[in-house]
Amino acid sequence: MNRFALPLAAAVALTALSIVTAFAETAMVKAGNLEITHAWTRATLPGQPAAAGYLVIENKGGEPDRLLSASSSASPTTEVHNMAMEDDIMKMAELNDGLEIPAGGKVELKPGGTHIMFKDLKQGFKEHDIVKVTLKFKISGEVEIELPVQAADSKEAQHTHGG
Predict the structure, then answer these.
(1) CA–CA gap between residue 53 and residue 41 (Å, rounded)
(2) Mean pLDDT, to the nearest integer, of 81-100?
(3) Which pairs count as long-range contacts for 16-21, CB under 8 Å and 24+ apart, including other chains?
(4) Average pLDDT over residues 52-57
(5) Given 3-state DSSP classes, what are the helix, strand and coil percentages for the chain, each rounded to the nearest 5?
(6) Strand, helix or coil at 98?
(7) What is the pTM of this model?
């Protein structure tokens, strides 16, 4: 190994760490009394027409808020969805009345449950890309968030950042 290899490796590692740290510091988005963290989505397979987005919404306020809708330029139809078992069949449906975020509580949008649904994708989601989404809340208004695209087989957010 030459005399430059170790210092170069250390510099690369420090640069990578600073990028991860910068991402960790900006991973939380605030909207009124709400803190939105752990946002992510999965890469899609070729020809896949839909995808789901996941995140955690924590209400630090004294009154409930409600996620009314979601929109994204990545998809002409973006909805707040829920998955539930009915008669041994997994069913998915839009939450027409939105999703309540209880006062002092937390709601997790995750695989197999409530999520953001992207229908009729304009193009697939590629790993390491970012999907921008606008969330509209009853009290806290609109806020734009970014969902990092993770591997197609991801089961949970690959970062553990929080507020």
Answers:
(1) 5
(2) 89
(3) none
(4) 97
(5) 15, 45, 40
(6) coil
(7) 0.79
